[in-house]
Amino acid sequence: MATLKRTGDNDLILKKSKVSKVYLNSEFKKDFGWFLQTIPHEVLVTILNQISNKEKISLATTCKTVRHILMPYIFANVKCPWEQLLDEPNWPLDPSIQHLIESLRITTSCSKNEWTYPFQKLFSNSEINKLRNLRSLHINSSGSTSFFKYCDVAENLKELSVTTTKERSLFSLEHVRPFKNLEYLNVSNFQIDDFVEDGTLCPKLESLRLNNCSWEYPFEIENFGRNKIRSLSLEYSNSFIISERFRDFLTHPGFTSLESLEITNTETNLKLTISLEIMKLIKNIPTLRVLKLKGNIYNENLNNFTKIDVENCMNYIALDNVKVLYCSFFSKG
Predict the structure, then answer these.
(1) Each residue's pLDDT tens digit, 221-267
(2) Residue finishing a domain among 229, 249, 268
(3) Are residues 136 and 173 in the same domain?
(4) For residue range 80-90, what is the model confidence (pLDDT) as tens digits?
(5) Beta strands per DSSP E along 174-265
(6) Among the three residues 202, 229, 256, which one is the final residue of a domain in this structure?
(7) Domain of 240?
(8) How many CB atoms are closer than 10 A to CB 331?
(9) CB atoms within 10 A of CB 83
(10) pTM as predicted
């Protein structure tokens, strides 16, 4: 992820790079530039995923051809603190490349800024919006997310990740009503406030990820959209994963379009034991195709299966056409 800083800083990165001598070779630059221009896009993405952003910057400083190709990948994801975001006239990024930004992460939290900042400005369809390709926002909230509901409609926001720094802060899908085109939602460390299912709330939401989020009766997790959520990820490092409310979801899931479900328990001192719940999950979610159980999760049948079949290096088993990936199937390295 790129940090908003002046391009002159890249010279220092290049000098420190272990492979800078290779990059600076004129013949290499010519051949490498041609290589990047001719390989399929999918291959280029795979290669770039294997190197750090600093190395991408080092490559980009070698010649115009390479820089032109790599700039969209370097500036696709940027991060900055609130004070820098607010100082728009002095943004270090040249206006000519601001359209390359696709994801913004605000690294600090500030209650005042959360309540007063016009988020819709970042995600508007206006022709004067310099960040016209921005689609994703990562934000650390100082409390509840209720400040979002006072925003105007933000048409371009499709992915939202929000983490609270204050324990038991409230999140509600009602809060993000202005984000009508939201497709992916990642919520961390919140208490989910009770809200009723409403088809007009984020009607395009398909992917939901909850990290250490809890909820209380009468709220049901299906209220996020039982007929529209296709991918659900639940990750916990606290006792909520063995709570009655979580067990109730495992035994009586109500999603009708869910295709992928991932449950992760990272708390080593709290083992989530799943016996009949797996079969109930699969039976009650006929659309399910992939079930991932990761971390400190135990199922006797699956555990015995992996011990017996370990020599075959099986990565999953199939139950009623559902791929079940169990924690012991994942490599420890």
Answers:
(1) 999 999 999 999 999 999 999 999 999 999 899 999 999 999 999 99
(2) 229
(3) yes
(4) 999 999 998 88
(5) 184-188, 191-192, 207-211, 231-236, 260-265
(6) 229
(7) 232-332
(8) 5
(9) 10
(10) 0.86
